[in-house]
Amino acid sequence: xxxxxxxxxxxxxxxxxxxxxxxxxxxxxxxxxxxxxxxxxxxxxxxxxxxxxxxxxxxxxxxxxxxxxxxxxxxxxxxxxxxxxxxxxxxxxxxxxxxxxxxxxxxxxxxxxxxxxxxxxxxxxxxxxxxxxxxxxxxxxxxxxxxxxxxxxxxxxxxxxxxxxxxxxxxxxxxxxxxxxxxxxxxxxxxxxxxxxxxxxxxxxxxxxxxxxxxxxxxxxxxxxxxxxxxxxxxxxxxxxxxxxxxxxxx
Length: 251
What we know:
This protein has helices spanning 34-43, 60-69, 85-93, 115-124, 185-197, 205-211, 231-242, and strands at 5-10, 28-29, 32-33, 48-55, 79-80, 102-105, 146-152, 158-161, 164-168, 175-184, 216-220. The chain is an alpha/beta fold. Residues 136-141 have low confidence and may be disordered.
C-alpha cells in the first residue's frame, strides 16, 4: 500500500446516554481512558502515519496531556468538535494536507477494535483513478470507493410505524455497520462537502459516499467491536477484555 493512511477519531459527542457528564472519551476501561484503547492500536499500525482525534474544545487540553502520557507520537493535531458527529469529522478532514492519502474514520467509543481488522480494511481499498466517482458510471473506478466493517444481523428485524409492524425485512441481506471505515481522501472529502452544502446529515460516513453514487464494500468485522454508549456497554467491554484469550490491549 503506497498511499499513506491518516486516521480521524471523532470523540466529541455529548454522551447523553452514558449518563456521567460530558467526558465519555476519558472514562476508564480497565484503568485506561476509553479513547486511548483504539488510539494505541492505530499507533502500532505501520500504514497509519498520523492520527487526528476530534475533541470538544473544553477537553482539548486534557486530551493533549493524556496523549502525551501514553506516548501517542502520531498525534500531531487535535481537531475541534462540532455540533454533530458529521461536523466533527469534517473538521478533521479539513486538517489533512496530503490529498492523495487514505482516510480511516473510527469512532473513539469503539475500544475493542482489532489490529488485523483495521489492516484488512486498508488492504481491501482500491484507489480509483478518477478524481471522483460519477453517479451512474463506473468510469475510472477499479473496485470501490470505500470499505466498511460490519457484522450480519442475528435478530429478526421488522419495520414499524406508530407501533404497528409494516413488514419483516430479510435478515440475510442486513448488516450492522461498524467503524473503522476507509476511503480515498478525495472521495470522502467531496462527499462531505456536497452533504454540508446540501445540509444533509448522517451518522454514517459511508452513507454520504453512497448518497452521491459511490460504491462501498462491506467486509466482516467483529461482534466484539462494540460501541460504548451506556454504562452497561462499558461493563460488557470489561467482560470481553477479561475473557480468556483476549489481551488487555486488543492488538
